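Project standup — Tuesday

K.O.: blocked on the structure for the chain from last sprint. Re-posting the sequence here as requested.
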Amino acid sequence: MSKREFGKTSKGEAAALYTIGNTKGMTVSITDFGAAVVAIHVPGKDNVQVDVTTGYDDVAPYERETCYFGATVARNANRIANAKFDIDGVTYQLEVNDNENNLHSGSNGTSEKIWAVKEMTDSKLVFAIVSGDLEQGFPGRCDMTVTYEVTEDNGLSIHYELVSDKKTVINPTNHTYFNLNGHASGKVYGHTLWLKASHYTPVINSHAIPTGEIAPVAGTPFDFTVAKTIGQDIEKEDIQLGYGNGYDHNFAIDKESQGMEKVATVVGDDTGIQMDVYTDLPGIQLYTGNFIGGQKGKDGAEYEARGAFCLETQYFPDAVNQVNFASPVYEAGQKYDSTTIYKFSIK
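H.V.: unblocked you, prediction finished:
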């Protein structure tokens, strides 16, 4: 495990960058600002290290930019319609920061704060933060920890534990952007993607709030039940693709159990690096980086639109307001405990 300075925030807070790894050569660098993943180096062909995630050189652009590179997003990931919801007859108003909606908990979310490091070893980092009652508009004081661990089988395990003292919404995610050919290698059109999802949640319009329908992917560009390249259908004339300017949609995982299961596989066409995604959550958001063009990244990189993709495990967008979706509302004292693993290998 190593630690180095990562610059200062606009408030003068010192940020740090931590690097953990395993004995097989995989390393992951994470900053305490937003508990955000900055780099993931995995062994590629001939054991050459490849950095497969976008990031920045210091904390300043993490605070300034709006792509959420690598961030731990909480309390609620994705969108809440009209930036409000009801619990037990009480209406809670959130920040309006995405058209008329709330996205990723707003400007006071955990992605915009320094987390405390509670434990660190060569392969594991435990971050913690407290969100006060109504601090982001959500009821209850919520204690959160996220544990990053690099496993010996080249997995990055992300374990979330959250508990509130009031009934509230709990729906965190990780917002890492991947390019398995290397973080600055251009569009991900040639990546092959399989999703364990025969249904997805269409959106009403470009504001990306779901209609409430859980629709079949069969016969649409959203069918990844048989592996295909990300670029195969992304330019097709399709109203849903038009709303997102590409893929920016939640997929309903075909769950077989309440526990962990493999829900996605992606393979980089140039490197042969394969990433398998495991989770115990009901949904996964595919976002093809449609709006990241012009970002100046780490090591002099200039990221282009669709130059990376996200696979964000989650409850469905706007689930707190949608009776047709599994609810992200947790009782006071009820623990949210969930794990997602991104596991890397060579195909």
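K.O.: great, moving the ticket to review. The helical segments are 59-64, 239-244. The chain has a mean pLDDT of 97.
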